[in-house]
Design a protein that fits this description.
The chain has about 300 residues and is an alpha/beta fold. It has 10 helices and 11 strands. Strands 1-2-6-7-8-9-10-11 form an 8-stranded parallel β-barrel, surrounded by 5 helices. Helix 9 links the parallel strand 10 and strand 11. Helix 1 packs across helix 10 and helix 7 packs across helix 8. The chain is globular, with a radius of gyration of 19 Å. Keywords: Signal.
Length: about 300
C-alpha cells in the first residue's frame, strides 16, 4: 500500500536520529524467486530496506545430502553441486550484502513444516556406520563444510524444526554447525520448553552460537504473544503478508516493541509480494517502528518452491 507523505517523513526522521538504529532488525523469508527470478529478485531485495534475508530452505535427506526447497540438489558426498541447477545461485547470495544494499545478514532456512530434516539428523547421529555422527569424517560435517565453503556470505542457518524436537541430537548437530562457522537462528511457533533447552544446550557448549529468535505469530503460531517467549536471545516477531496490511504490521510491531521489548520484526513471505511496491512497504512498516539503520539503497558492512510450507 502507498504510504502518506507524512508517514514517510516520520520514518526518515527515525532513520536519522535513532541511537539504537544499528541494532534494529527487519527480516523477510524469501524462497523460489531468489533463484528462479533472479533477474529482479536480487536487486529488489537489496534495495528493499530489509536488513535480514532468510533464503528458504535447505532439507537434509536420509543419506545426509542437502537439497533446496525439494527442488534441486545442493550438496552431496561433501561436494557442492547446486551449480548444476542454478549456476548463479552462489554469486547471487554473495551479492546480497555487497554494494548498495540494506541487507546486513543472510541466512539459509533449515527444515520446515513437513520436512524430515531433523528426523534424519537424529538418525544420522544415532547410527554406528562410518558416515554417522558429527565428527569431521561424518557426512553431515562434510556436507555442511562444503556448504560453508560455497557460501561464505551466509551468516547463519535458520532452525525451523517443526516436528522432531529431539534436543539430544539437535544440540550436538548445531554445535557442529558452529564449529564449521555458522551461527544458528531459531524460528519457533510452539514447544517453548524444547527451544529453551536447545538454546541453553548449544550456547553452553559454544557461547553465542544461537544468537537470534524469529517468533512466528501467524499460522500455527497465530496465538503467540512475544511477551511470553523470552529465551535469552534477541527476539523478533513475524507476521504473514496474506493476513496483514502494512498498517497492521506497523501497529502490531509498535505494540510488541512497547510491551515486550522485541528488537525487530519479519515478514513471511516475500514470494507473495515480490516484484511489487509491497516489498518496500512491508520493510518500511517494520523500519518505522524500529528505526533501522539500513534504509533502502545504502550500503552496509553485510514463490516458495517445492513441497513444504511456511516456517
Amino acid at each position: 500500500m502507498k504510504k502518506s507523505k507524512g508517514l514517510a517523513l516520520f520514518g526518515l526522521c527515525l532513520l536519522l536520529v535513532s541511537p539504537l538504529a544499528s541494532h534494529a532488525i527487519s527480516g523477510v523469508y524469501a524462497g523460489g524467486p531468489v533463484y528462479q527470478k533472479r533477474d529482479y529478485a536480487i536487486d529488489e531485495l537489496k534495495s528493499s530496506g530489509f536488513t535480514h534475508v532468510i533464503v528458504w530452505t535447505i532439507h537434509i535427506e536420509t543419506d545426509g545430502s542437502l537439497g533446496f526447497n525439494a527442488e534441486f540438489p545442493l550438496v552431496k558426498d561433501g561436494i557442492y553441486i547446486g551449480d548444476q541447477s542454478y549456476p548463479h545461485f552462489r554469486k547471487d547470495i554473495a551479492s546480497l550484502k555487497t554494494g548498495e544494499s540494506s541487507i546486513t545478514r543472510v541466512e539459509f532456512g533449515l527444515s520446515g513444516w513437513g520436512s524430515g530434516t531433523y528426523d534424519n539428523v537424529r538418525d544420522l547421529l544415532a547410527c554406528e556406520e562410518s558416515h554417522c555422527g558429527t565428527g569431521t569424517d561424518s557426512i553431515l560435517y562434510r556436507n555442511f563444510r562444503a556448504l560453508r565453503e560455497a557460501f561464505p556470505a551466509v551468516d547463519a542457518l535458520n532452525n525451523d524444526d517443526e516436528g522432531t524436537y529431539d534436543v539430544d541430537s539437535a544440540v550436538p548437530f548445531h554445535v557442529m554447525l558452529s564449529d564449521i562457522g555458522f551461527k544458528t537462528a531459531i524460528v519457533p511457533y510452539k514447544n517453548k520448553d524444547f527451544w529453551q533447552s536447545f538454546v541453553e544446550g548449544v550456547n553452553s557448549a559454544r557461547s553465542g552460537a544461537v544468537d537470534l529468535s524469529y517468533l512466528q505469530v501467524y499460522d500455527g503460531g497465530a496465538a503467540n504473544n512475544p511477551c511470553n517467549w523470552d529465551l535469552g536471545l534477541p527476539l523478533v516477531a513475524g507476521l504473514w503478508s496474506r493476513d496483514v496490511s502494512t498498517e497492521e504490521v506497523q501497529s502490531r510491531m509498535q505494540d510488541w516493541a512497547g510491551a515486550c521489548g522485541i528488537e525487530g520484526g519479519f515478514m513471511w513471505l516475500y514470494d507473495e509480494f515480490d516484484n511489487s511496491p509491497g516489498v518496500a512497504s512491508y520493510a518500511d512498516a517494520i523500519n518505522l517502528v524500529f528505526a533501522s539503520a539500513s534504509p533502502r539503497g545504502k550500503s552496509s558492512p553485510g514463490e516458495i518452491g517445492g513441497a513444504f510450507s511456511s516456517p
